[in-house]
Write a structure and sequence with these properties.
This protein has helices spanning about 5-15, 20-30, 30-40, 50-60, 60-75, 90, 125-140, 155-165, 185-195, 210-220, 235-245, 265-270, 280-285, 330-340, 350-355, 360-370, and strands at about 75-80, 100-105, 115-120, 145, 170, 195-200, 225-230, 250-255, 275, 345-350, 375-380, 385. A nine-stranded mixed sheet has the order 1-2-6-5-4-3-7-8-9, sandwiched between helices. A three-stranded antiparallel sheet has the order 10-12-11. With about 400 residues, it is α/β, with parallel strands linked by helices. The protein starts with a helix and ends with a strand.
Length: about 400
């Protein structure tokens, strides 16, 4: 019997984030023995809730086999704790996932420095800038960057790793095929090519608020350290930080202004003993002797251009060149940003905010959409221009 089928059957019954499966293995030795024991014995296990016992009976091995085949049809791999490729960093947790659905290739998180970067979706300009710079410089040193694929800090962390041509892992709180945060659909596709999308949730699971706190233990569990960039007082990023502390991982926080409400959570973490990180080196120096890192680092004040400068488009007499671009599939913010960029002129983020009336976090999310589709390119100092043809 394919052991993945048994793990999928058990995960369906216990639910994501359960701590019951180690008790089952301790008592029965392996899942096949537990399966063969049957409903009468399952009902005797006091640590299983009535709901779990019902699910063990109603969701059959044939159902689990069908789920396995469906996931593979979608191009997803299944990793279970008895497989060598399953990360040891997760296997040692008391609530390790019974199964991981993966698109792409799981990077060697057990052998390379792995750093999670988390923060608010509505980050400030400085927070977004810091997230991308920290991720890029830490990844350049040879580390893997883990985050949650959301807008804001998560997006910039993944992009920073991709800037460095490095591994990045996106841990989702829904099925991998779900149309979650479609503004980041192209980013997720890039991550799957150069790293991995992973989820504990099977295909068909929609993104629900209750899924994400459970998901966060995987983000921290895969990592040696969690860097919190910006977090408000009641931010989900603080849940990830507390998961990291429970798991014995290091927690770093980037200090912020007392006037910035997005720094309330990070500053509170610092008060509680988190390690301050003002530069990427502040993180890397903790791991120089444990991992072979490419250090010392030279942090940059401004992020470099993500692409080589494109040749300027030729202008026809009487009218500036304006490429015909179908923007119908883009967000309203992306359309507004594209129209605000004129020809090959480079425009600062401050001017774009003034011209469009949109806040920085929306413009940066829009810029990500357009960059991923090759329509615009970034220059140093958070400036943007249309990409030359």
């Amino acid at each position: 019997m394919d052991s993945r089928v048994l793990w999928l059957w058990l995960q369906h019954a216990l639910g994501a984030g359960s701590r019951k499966h180690p008790l089952i293995l301790e008592k029965f030795g392996d899942l096949e023995t537990f399966w063969n024991a049957g409903p009468a014995v399952w009902n005797e296990q006091a640590y299983l809730t009535p709901k779990m016992r019902r699910a063990l009976k109603t969701f059959t091995l044939d159902d689990a086999q069908g789920l396995l085949e469906y996931a593979e049809k979608l191009g997803q791999q299944i990793l279970t704790p008895d497989m060598p490729a399953y990360p040891e960093k997760l296997r040692v947790l008391p609530d390790y996932p019974c199964a991981l659905f993966i698109k792409g290739q799981m990077p060697p998180v057990d052998y390379l420095l792995t750093v999670a970067m988390v923060g608010t979706r509505k980050a400030t300009y400085d927070g977004l800038h810091a997230a991308r710079r920290f991720a890029r410089e830490i990844a350049k040193a040879g580390a893997i960057i883990v985050s949650g694929g959301a807008l804001g800090v998560d997006t910039q962390a993944h992009l920073g790793a991709l800037d460095a041509d490095a591994y990045t892992v996106c841990v989702l709180g829904c099925g991998l095929e779900q149309e979650y945060l479609m503004a980041n659909a192209d980013l997720r596709a890039r991550i799957a090519r150069f790293g991995a999308l992973i989820s504990e949730y099977p295909p068909g699971t929609v993104a629900m608020g209750s899924n994400f706190p459970i998901r966060n233990r995987i983000i921290s569990g895969l990592s040696d350290a969690v860097v919190v960039v910006e977090a408000a007082q009641k931010s989900g990023s603080l849940i990830t930080a507390h998961c990291a502390l429970d798991q014995g991982r290091d927690v770093f926080a980037i200090p912020g202004s007392v006037e910035n409400r997005n720094a309330c959570g990070t500053n509170a973490l610092l008060s509680d003993g988190a390690i301050p990180a003002s530069t990427p080196d502040d993180v890397l120096r903790y791991y120089e002797t444990r991992y072979q890192l490419r250090v010392p680092m030279q942090p940059q004040v401004s992020p470099p251009s993500r692409t080589a400068a494109a040749p300027k488009p030729e202008k026809r007499p009487g009218k500036p060149a304006k490429p015909a671009v179908d923007l119908s599939q883009f967000s309203d913010a992306a359309k507004t940003l594209y129209e605000a960029l004129d020809g090959d002129k480079t425009v600062t983020m401050d001017k774009l905010c003034a011209d469009t009336g949109l806040p920085v976090y929306k413009l940066l999310a829009a810029a990500t959409e357009l960059e991923l589709m090759g329509l615009i390119e970034g220059a140093s100092g958070q400036r943007y221009r249309r990409k030359g043809k």
